[in-house]
Write a sequence for this structure.
């Protein structure tokens, strides 16, 4: 069973993934500050009162998360994502999978926009250039409503996954399927990760303009 690690796991998505994934895995809840990670784990344990979560979820500094974990999930805001990965780049031990949950979204006036640099290269692609080649990168979880997931409310949502090989996709998909009512869908190579990262802005605007709470996506087949 792979050891899972959440880099910057003390935000909404980190909390949500920690609750679900620690029911079946050892999970390291990461933060730059160990005390913040400990406080996050204590908060989850107090609210959930689940013996599996209490046994499997451990606090750690981000640097330790990177060194020890087999599969890593980056859940920091896009503004800090690249700086965070650069600061940790020497700690990767290789033969790991890094799932970028970074969403390219920013608030401009009363709208949400997809914020990318002039190169048009996605955050996931930029992250791949920073870390060792032996670390495989995927993009996923950008469209999951984190607060709904944390409440363990019934949710039916698809999770598009962009990564360069089917083998890596299968590893990511197996984690997604451990969360009730989430369905992984293979989008294609990491070149398409920008499409996933931009979906968050689309969902937030639709929710705001149409009074929809926590909208997500589902792809029916007819």
């Amino acid at each position: 069973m792979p050891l899972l690690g959440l880099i910057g796991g003390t935000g909404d998505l980190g909390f949500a993934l920690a609750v679900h994934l620690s029911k079946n895995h050892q999970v390291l809840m990461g933060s730059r500050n160990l005390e913040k990670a400990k406080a996050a784990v204590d908060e989850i344990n107090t609210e959930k009162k689940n013996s599996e979560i209490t046994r499997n979820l451990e606090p750690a500094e981000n640097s330790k998360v990177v060194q020890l974990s087999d599969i890593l999930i980056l859940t920091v805001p896009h503004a800090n994502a690249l700086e965070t990965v650069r600061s940790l780049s020497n700690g990767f031990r290789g033969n790991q999978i890094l799932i970028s949950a970074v969403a390219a979204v920013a608030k401009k006036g009363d709208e949400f926009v997809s914020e990318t640099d002039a190169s048009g290269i996605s955050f996931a692609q930029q992250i791949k250039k920073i870390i060792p080649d032996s670390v495989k990168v995927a993009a996923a979880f950008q469209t999951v409503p984190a607060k709904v997931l944390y409440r363990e409310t019934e949710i039916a949502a698809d999770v598009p996954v962009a990564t360069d090989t089917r083998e890596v996709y299968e590893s990511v998909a197996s984690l997604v399927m451990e969360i009730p009512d989430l369905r992984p869908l293979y989008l294609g190579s990491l070149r398409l990760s920008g499409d996933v990262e931009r979906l968050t802005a689309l969902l937030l605007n639709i929710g705001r303009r149409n009074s929809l709470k926590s909208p997500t996506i589902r792809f029916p087949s007819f």
